[in-house]
Specification:
Elements (H helix, E strand, L loop, with lengths): L1 E4 L6 E2 H13 L13 H5 L3 H18 L1 E2 L3 H9 L3 E6 L6 H10 L6 E4 L6 H6 L4 E4 L2 H8 L5 E4 L12 E4 L2 H9 L2 H7 L11
Bound molecules: magnesium ion.
Protein name: Nucleotidase
GO molecular function: 5'-nucleotidase activity
EC number: 3.1.3.-
């Protein structure tokens, strides 16, 4: 089966790094639980051009310096033995090199790396016929699941709340792995309104 996997907040523990760098650069003291990677502008009350300048200085560093999420390499490698991995991220294409290096450094295997430069993952997931997306941003999970693709949402302070049908909260990579190998994904979709005849595996 074809599996989509996000980077920041799913493979990379990016939040502490971003908060530290943003706090330092903008000279504020935001806490982890105040931060939403999906909306840095709102959290830090900064403009698009301020963010652009920040990324010019710290972007490359941010893209290659996060610690991996616990269990990500172990379980992604196991999943890769039986499935195709599509790493699909909102990161901009200009960070391709840093991103590839980071994935390699932390032994995170994949078949294709897709840098979108936007948060719109619905079309790219549909185009590649992905059967599940592992994601941490609830807004993206809502959008992708509405297109009939199940989403495994890795729990984070910024993605709390009620989940729509086809979005399943997972707390660890072990839980993500169990859901994929034990067929929770297939079962969920068979029970949904997905068109008849669609082949889950
Ligand atoms: Mg993410």
């Amino acid at each position: 089966m074809k599996i989509g996997v996000d980077i920041d907040g799913v493979l990379a523990n990016s939040l502490p790094l971003w908060v530290a760098e943003l706090n330092n650069y903008f000279n504020v003291n935001k806490q982890l639980n105040e931060m939403h990677l999906y909306n840095v502008l709102k959290t830090y009350e900064i403009s698009q051009s301020e963010l652009k300048l920040f990324l010019k200085h710290r972007g490359q560093y941010l893209m290659k310096s996060a610690e991996p999420v616990a269990g990500a390499s172990h379980y992604l490698s196991r999943i890769k033995q039986q499935h195709e991995i599509y790493i699909i991220t909102a990161r901009d294409k200009r960070y391709q090199e840093e991103t590839q290096e980071w994935l390699k450094k932390h032994n995170l295997p994949y078949d294709e790396l897709i840098l979108l430069g936007s948060h719109d993952k619905k079309e790219p997931c549909l185009e590649r016929n992905l059967r599940v997306l592992v994601e941490d941003t609830l807004e993206i999970g809502v959008q992708v699941s509405a297109a009939g693709i199940p989403v495994l949402l890795l729990d984070a302070p910024y993605n709390q709340g009620t989940l729509p049908e086809l979005v399943f909260r997972k707390h660890t990579w072990d839980e993500i792995y169990q859901a994929i190998v034990h067929g929770q994904i297939g079962a969920a979709v068979k029970g949904s309104s997905r068109p008849a005849g669609s082949n889950m595996f």
